[in-house]
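INTERNAL AUDIT FORM
Audit reference: QA-55
Scope: verify that the stored structure record matches its stored sequence.
Auditor: D.O.
Record contents follow.
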Amino acid sequence: MKLSFSVSVLLLCCVCCVKAITIESCPSANASIIAAQIEETITLTCIIDAGLDPSNQMELQWYRNGDLVDLKEENRLYRSSLCIQPITKEENGVIFTCQLKRDASVNSSVELYVQFAPDLNDTENILVEEESDVVLSCDVHANPAVTVVWKKDGEVLDLTTGSYKTTNNGITAQLSIPNIKRDIHQGIYICQVTSLVFGTRNKSFKMTVEDKTFKFPLEPMIAGLVVVACTIVLAIVSRLDKIKKCCKRN
């Protein structure tokens, strides 16, 4: 009974010695997740448990995804703040951790959840020749993820006709069209993306199909002329002595 009581007292003392760290944020965190949008500002304030005597000068450290953040000396003791401005899409998923320098086990972390819409341009003019291939690209990098629909001349594109092929890796959505035909493929294409947060946004492609032009095989022709020239030069060099003798006789 005495042994059990001693162990309980020892555990209680250990718990009392452990000081907590709290991270306050603006905007406020929800279960250690801070939601924000790009161009906003996030302020993080790390506070040591109020039961700690500030005269002990316990030093605080901040880490960004495991990398130490450089802080001014006056921003390290007992209370430390970070200001993240402006928020960019690259900050999404970044984890900030505040800890005691002398005891890394005393720490607290928050994760940034940055919402952003895809970066879409208005209209892109495309001039292609018949029987050529074309790929239309649309930026769909967003958080939360978006849904993508391709349209042609205002109607949802029938992907079973025209040999269309679509791909989407979460960063770029593409519409591939091989062997372009004017009567089938010419028109206005729209990449329509829909977000639960930012609504619907579009990027348009105005495709004009022109007649196929005959392309003169310039490179093969130049290569052929070079070969002929080299052959003539070598022939002259190989017969140089004979040419000199003929000139002397004359």
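Auditor finding: record pair retrieved intact. The chain is about 20% helix and 40% strand.
Action required: none
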